[in-house]
Amino acid sequence: MKNLSLVLNIVLVVAVGVLYVLHFSKPSAEAAKGNSQKNDSIDYSVVYINSDSVLVNYDYFDKIQSELQEKGAKLEKEYQSRAEGLQREVNDFQRTVNSLTIGQAKALEEDLLKKQQNLRVYQENLSQQLMREEAKMNQELYKKVTSFLKDYSAENGIDLVVKFNQGSDVLYANEGMDITKEVIEGLNAAYAKELSAPKAKTDSTKAE
Question: Model-level pTM greater than 0.85?
Fold first, then answer.
């Protein structure tokens, strides 16, 4: 899904201005006074990932994308079934309208218009339901990626992770700063571990 694949833009995009602040801003006089024994310049560890590659190769993303597509196909099928049923009623009305009284024809026409309005409302409800499902999956993806990056950065002494691919604010970065492969492997390893973990016992089981 297009919207789903954009979630890492929210997770990882960092303005170039932030990078400039980290690398080139001079400490204020007050800060310099409080840190007189430290070097005038501070080094930050900055790395980048290709978010498109992460999404394409992240097993969890593949799973939730498939689930969302399956859900969308199911809802579309339900809507299509109702729409076809209404269309059959419209066809029957058009075929028999000449044999009906004016009162009967008017009553049937009003009933069909009401059903058409209900079908439109039903379609909107299905769309909203799918959007809620997508938003829920986006949030879960956001949590997993940011949680992993936080732990990975702490373990490897990283201060900043940026997104570097077409459309990002970063125009150039040394390939040695690319941790895309490590992130993909780490995310998939964490997801595999999550899948293999025993399910939590229910309260009733614990009571026994």
Answer: no
